[in-house]
Amino acid sequence: MMGRTHMAFGAGAGLLLAPLFGASVIPFVALSTFASLLPDVDHQNSKINRMLPITRWIPVLFKHRGFFHSIFPPLILYALFWALNLQTLGLPLMVGYLAHLGSDCLTRLGCNLLHPFSTFRIQGPILTDGLREYVLFGCVMVANGALVLSSTGMFG
Ligand SMILES: [Zn+2]
Question: I need a surface site. Which of 3, 17, 119, 150 has the fewest CB within 10 A?
Fold first, then answer.
């Protein structure tokens, strides 16, 4: 799935969940949107690896949609921030990371959420960069817009 679609899902998850956690919406959404790019550190040409040169060694050691596309990195990330008493950072990072994994589960390649302990992949009908992904991206952006408008009270 393309970086922009992941960011749309990360933003949407942040918009939905920030109020439930009583968090400030803007920093929460900024962090969840950023974190929605993190799992693709295991892909050579991903947006995150183009942005952050320091993570470019990861695809050499880890296969794409292997460990970094399991539920373990976001849990470890959250535990680290929790141990540092920085849940306000750890929570949106975990939310954005999980939004990425959830959206990759919609693709044909799918996601093995329990890698390396299982080989079971959750797969969907979306082809990366295909028409369905563009339609999905549009739908998520419209939903995000509606969430922003409703949170600012424009729908009453
Ligand atoms: Zn991915």
Answer: 119
DSSP state of 118: -
Q: Is 112 left (phi over 0), alpha (psi -120 to 50) or beta?
A: beta
Ligand 1 centroid to 32 CA: how many Å? Answer: 15
How far apart are the CA of 130 and the centre of ligand 1, in A?
A: 15
Ligand 1: distance of its center to the CA of 155 in Å?
34
- Residue 131 included in any domain: yes
**pLDDT tens, residue by residue, 64-81:** 999 999 999 999 999 999
148 Cα–ligand 1 center, Å: 26
State the pLDDT at residue 21.
Answer: 95
Tally of domains in the chain: 1
Q: Whole-model pTM?
A: 0.95
Residue 156 lies in a domain: no
CB atoms within 10 A of CB 2: 15
Q: What is the mean pLDDT of the chain?
A: 95
